[in-house]
Amino acid sequence: MSEETSALPAYIPPKARSLFEPHRLFLMAVFLVIVFCAICFMRWDWLPRYGGRLAYGVWQTLLMLFCTAGIGFLLAVPIGLVQVTGPWPLAWLARIFCTIIRGTPLLLQLWLLYYGLGSLFSQYPEIRSSFLWPYLRQAWPYGFTALMISFAAYEGEVMRGAFAGVPRGELEAARAFGMSRFTMFRRIWLPRAVHRALPTLAGETVLQLKSTPLVATITVIDVYAVISRVRQDTFLTYEPLLLLALIYLCLTGILVAGFRLLENRIPARGA
Amino acid sequence: MPSGLELLSLSPPGWGGVLLAGLMASLQLAVGGYLLGLVIGIGGACGKLYGGPILRDLLEVYTTLIRAVPELVLILLLYYAGTDAVNQILLLLGFATVDISGLAAGIFVIGVVQGAYSTEVLRGAIKAVPAGQIEAARAYGMPPLLALRRVILPAMLPYAIPGLSNLWLIATKDTALLAVVGFSELTLVTRQAAGSTKAYMTFYLAAGVLYLLVTLMSNIVIGFIERHARRGMPRTV
Amino acid sequence: MQNVIKAIAAAVVLGTVAFGAAQAQEVKVGFAAEPYPPFTSPDASGKWVGWEIDFMEAMCAEAKLQCVPTPIAWDGIIPALTSKKIDMIVGSMSITEERLKTIDFSDKYYNTPTGIVGPKSEKFDATPEGLKGKIIGVQVSTVHQEYATKHFGPVAAEIKEYQTQDEANQDLAAGRIDAVQADAIALDAFLKSDAGACCDLKGNVEDDSAVLGAGIGVGLRKGETELKDKVNAAIKAIRANGTYDTFSKKYFDFDIYGG
Questions:
Q1: How far is A121 from chain B, CA to nearest CA, in Å?
Q2: Which one of A11, A99, A200, C197 has the fewest CB atoms closer than 10 angstroms to its CB?
Q3: Alpha-carbon dihedral of residues B157, B163, B166, B171, nearest 10 degrees?
Q4: Mean per-residue pLDDT pooled into runs of 10, chain A (271 residues)
């Protein structure tokens, strides 16, 4: 019965096809023609003038991405943990935090921090004269905070599921071996939860990369801001944006490939 | 200059009315974009599962591209390019150009972005429908459209709803990005109100509460729909 | 199943087009979707008011055009014009050589000097020497951005670019930047507001007409001479019949048209 089902042509999954089938070759040819037309008929003469600034922008974007994702993940672990096992006030606080951050647009949070909180800070002379002011004057701490909080909230939700999903038996086995609560957390619970959360981490990091251009709206210079500058200098509508899309496409591709490499190095049972 | 809650009252000098109008615009965008995304998603999922090889590859390119490029960049590209392209095509076909309103362009942009994600969600859901059910529909001689309407779509709904409800929440938040192209939705009118009155905290917090309310109410409705769609499904373990 | 896909695709295209086609042909007049007093700013009922809105209404009435005010993001306003999202720019845009390569302009309809403001507590001049080591805020894609980059770029600590003028003013008031360069008339409105109490005018910058342009004009698409002629005739007419002075008096106690 099941044999017959899978024999129907409509249900063959589209994977496992060669890259060099006739229709793919045809599509690739069409694609090459489009790229060729884009190079020939659109204006790209501005590219050399902005090369250095673009590289700097990409570097800033990546820096922003990895720092916020790294620290955000470190925050996500306690946020996930207290929701599973913490005392109820902490669990509630963590849940409310996740709901609020995930329920409002990042752009709004960013502007609230930069324009709202930033203008409040400046009203207090104590803050203005403190050693923190040179940092609070700049834009990137606000962008950094907003991105980090957002990543912590989204990943915290994932970590909650991951902590809750670690089989009870493993934790009980650890206890039976006489592990203290902390050792059990460090040696069994945390590694297993992180392992479970790893597949989603790749997706969340890509989402985080796609959120980084928002910081350009509060005057942080990243690759998006550089391209905006090009748009304003040259009055071109499409070319800079197409290049920007291409840059992000490459960054996403590299990220995904990197995570796949990482996942392959971590042994999984079965498979 | 009025202060505090007075600024949020519904009639001038309060800006509450403006904020609510912005919220309505945001919701219109979200609903329109979400529905357009669903239509694209159904088409895309069917195309990916049953279409010819070229169509499948093209759809693969579409979903990969859209999901790899930041929404902000896509919105900028599509907002200008989308309307331009429609007019160019109309000119080529010999029609007069049309005036595409900001709302239509906004819905188009959100719809195209949502379409890529809902294609993937729906494809997964259709694949989760036992093949025998679809074959039974064919065996009874149902034409493809009828089978889609009567069998495939209802049967895949329980599998699709978690993904689709997530997409709805993303759609409501993605509308905020249209502030960057100057579309007067909630985030932009908030920024204008905050800039005009210098009460930045008041307005950003108020807008945050409005967005949060939309999310929380959506969650309630989604829970209801989920229970409704799961009737007759075996309980998951 | 192929038929299904084709049908849905056709429906989507038709739906999008029909949705947009519902509106009649009008002249969409674009301006920056941000508070830019006293020229364009939203009031608490969501309506746009200001000198430039009055000017637009008078000019459109004179030219018998059905104008629809269309607020749009400033940094995308020229692409919006060239991609036909709007048909005209009445947004305090200076007529410059650089912009004339891409779009066309009507005759000027007002002129403004360029000023620099800074905190009251600090004394400096609007010269490259005075701005040495300072962080200067400007709005993106304005003549001020170009001017500041050209004249102050080598000496200033940083030229910070903002999407809207309002944000630059806000950051000046919040102490995040040391100076703002902008149109003197718009800066005057900022200094008179509560938020502007922190700061005062440090002076007007030295003229550089190659960068600062020759007054403010209505931005138009290239090749639309018919519309351009209408607009020019209308500006001339409202200048001659006194309408221009009547609504200008509501906002300014000097001649904004300039020499």
A1: 12
A2: C197
A3: -80
A4: 38 58 86 89 89 95 96 95 90 94 95 89 82 87 96 94 92 92 91 87 92 93 92 85 94 92 74 40
d(CA C26, CA B152): 45
- Are C68 and C97 within one domain? yes
Q: Give the phi and the psi of residue B73 in degrees, each rounded to 5.
A: -65, -45
Residues with Cβ within 8 Å of residue B140, at least 6 apart in sequence: none
The total number of structural domains that make up chain C: 2
Same domain (yes/no): C118, C202: yes
Contact assessment for residue B44 and residue B119, using Cβ atoms and an 8 Å cutoff: yes
Residue ranges of domains in chain B, CATH in brackets: 32-182 (1.10.3720.10)
Chain A CB contacts of C75 under 8 Å are: 228, 231-232
Tell me, yes or no, whether C118 and C208 share the same domain. Answer: yes
Query: What is the C-alpha to C-alpha distance for residues A190 and A163, in angstroms, rounded to an integer?
Result: 8
**Contact between residue A72 and residue A155 where contact means Cβ atoms under 8 Å apart:** yes
Q: What is the CATH number of the domain that holds C151?
A: 3.40.190.10
CA torsion sign for B21, B23, B26, B31 is negative
The token pair that represents C66 in the structure block = 């059905």
For A238, name the nearest residue in chain C, comparing CA atoms only: C79
pLDDT > 80? residue B99:
no
CATH topology of domain A67-220: MetI-like fold (1.10.3720)
Interface list for A 225-264 with B (CB within 8 A): 237-238, 241-242, 244-245, 248-249, 252-253
- Report CA-CA distances (Å) from B199 to B53, B180, C64, C192, C200: 57, 21, 40, 17, 22
Contact B53 A242 (CB under 8 A): no
Nearest-angstrom CA–CA distance, B151 and B138: 10
Residues whose CB is less than 8 angstroms from the CB of residue B207 and which lie 6 or more positions away in sequence, other chains included: A108, B19, B22, B186, B187, B190
User: What was the pLDDT predicted at C214?
Assistant: 85
ipTM of the complex: 0.87
The residue type of B63 is: T
CA A109 centroid distance within chain: 17
Same domain? C79 vs C53: yes
**CA distance to partner chain A, nearest, from residue B12 (Å):** 22
- Is C10 part of any domain? no
Q: What percent of chain C has pLDDT over 90?
A: 65
Range of the domain at C51: 24-111+215-249
Name the DSSP letter for residue B18: H
* B212 closest CB neighbour out of A104, A117, A245: A104
pTM tops 0.90: no
Give the pLDDT of residue A16.
Answer: 53
In this predicted structure, what is the pLDDT of residue C180?
Answer: 95
Indicate the helix (H) or strand (E) that contains A164: helix A140-165
